[in-house]
Write a structure and sequence with these properties.
alpha/beta, 13 helices, binds ligand PBG
């Protein structure tokens, strides 16, 4: 019997309806079509239809012109209408051993045996609404490719960036986080450019808010793009990263970003006490509505390599191990979680993502706050490189890695794949 299933849109944003990843997919024989004009501007008419079968047969078509009572009477009288025969048992290949059935009361494969069942029992879902798209910006007019991150660019803040944001919104990604490439001449030991109200980031926020008032803008709060030492804090002459003095600068940076229109400020510096201090500074200036996403468990990771190349922000000496966490540590993440919760963080972030799934789960189980995961530059570049070398299927690995971050407990994911993955979720292939 031919049946038609309307796949209900799982979300609707920016005027397009999208399918949930891993949900019903058309089988090779099934037809996938758009109802009505498939224009982006007419979302209500854009429904996806899956025909489960194209094999029309006589059993469903012929009507006998009988009433319900006559049909029932016929069956009671033993005149059962014809239906398709029971299909023959599919043959196993020659040589298949004949064995007695295993005495299993539970066969978990039963719930996995068809796309419809798998889709019904899927525990985790992925939506473009879960993504935050990190974007690199610079003062230039051109978009400059980033060698270590294929497919990523330093975008011109006035042109390329605006186009990229429009593309992302078009497929339901309405949250971005900005990372500036700052000219060397504006860097200093105390990173004062970080709170210049006419600096690259505040200027860009104002432009984006003017063009897309409902865009959710996250900002990075840390000194490294502005520090002539390439560190997230002020460096004393003996190499010590000064905590409280750095927090003072970070508060000014966060307030400057909030003044420009940032929705969520995200301290990624790992100084002690910065969340509480930033909360107080924002509130004192009337920005009680601005959220704080704290990089709660940020590890001193080598997976950040490509990012530092993108921003030319490698530390000029030493490493970041006196402030970022030791990758060997698990319980220590609970100390950071307690501090950030009590200091007023709105979202807790774990970074990197995939190698730190246990930390994501730890925070998920120990805090009622939303959890963010950052799929960092090194994770992105490894998947891209594997795809380019044809060692893995880039798109499938991308989607799987994002789904795994959600399964581990992340509500939102910061990922350079945001646009590509959202297009994939929307059924677009590029
Ligand atoms: C710096 C910052 C870093 C990243 C985000 N913010 C790098 C670092 O801590 O050295 C890394 C992001 C990535 O690798 O994608 N405050």
């Amino acid at each position: 019997m031919a049946s038609t299933t309307i796949v209900k849109p799982q979300w609707s944003l920016s005027g397009i309806d999208c399918q949930r990843y891993g949900g019903l997919k058309p089988s090779p024989s099934a037809k996938f079509c758009h109802l009505g004009a498939a224009s982006r501007r007419q979302p209500s008419r854009r429904l996806l239809v899956v025909r489960a079968s194209e094999n029309h047969n006589d059993y469903s078509i012929k009507k006998m012109g009988m009433s319900d009572a006559e049909c029932e009477a016929a069956v009671v009288a033993g005149n059962v209408p014809e239906a398709p025969p029971v299909p023959p048992k599919p043959a196993a290949p020659a040589g298949t051993p004949v064995v007695p059935l295993l005495p299993l009361s539970r066969r978990p494969r039963r719930n996995r045996r068809s796309p419809a069942l798998r889709s019904a029992f899927q525990e985790t879902n992925l939506s473009p609404a879960n993504f935050v798209y990190p974007l690199f910006i610079h003062e230039g007019e051109e978009d400059t490719p980033i060698g270590a991150m294929p497919g990523c660019y330093r975008l011109g803040w006035r042109h390329g960036l605006v186009e990229e944001v429009a593309k992302a919104r078009d497929v339901g990604v309405n949250s971005i986080v900005l990372f500036p490439k700052v000219p060397d001449a504006l860097k200093s030991p105390t990173g004062d450019e970080a709170y210049n109200d006419s600096g690259l980031v505040p200027r860009t926020i104002r432009l984006l808010k003017d063009k897309f008032p409902d865009l959710v803008i996250y900002t990075d709060v840390a000194l490294d793009p502005y520090s002539s030492d390439g560190h997230d804090g002020i460096v004393r002459e003996d190499g010590v990263i000064m905590n409280d003095e750095t927090v003072h600068q970070l508060c000014k940076q966060a307030v400057s970003q909030a003044r420009a229109g940032a929705d969520v400020v995200s301290p990624s510096d790992m100084m002690d006490g910065r969340v509480g201090a930033i909360r107080a500074a924002l509130d004192a200036e009337g920005f009680h509505h601005v959220s704080i996403m704290s990089y709660t468990a940020k590890y001193a990771s080598s997976f950040y390599g490509p990012f530092r190349e993108a921003l030319d922000s490698n530390p000029r000496f030493g490493d970041k191990k006196t402030y970022q966490m030791n990758p060997a540590n698990y319980r220590e993440a609970l100390i950071e979680t307690r501090e950030d919760e009590s200091e007023g963080a709105d979202i807790l972030l774990v970074k990197p993502g995939l190698p730190y799934l246990d930390i994501i789960r730890l925070l998920r189980d120990n805090s009622p706050l939303p959890i963010a995961a950052y799929q960092v530059s090194g994770e992105y570049s490894m998947i891209k490189a594997g795809g380019v070398l044809k060692m893995i299927d880039e798109e499938k690995v991308m989607m799987e890695s994002l789904m795994c971050l959600r399964r581990a407990g992340a509500d939102i994911i910061l990922t350079y794949f945001a646009l590509q993955a959202a297009r994939c979720l929307c059924g677009e292939k590029r």
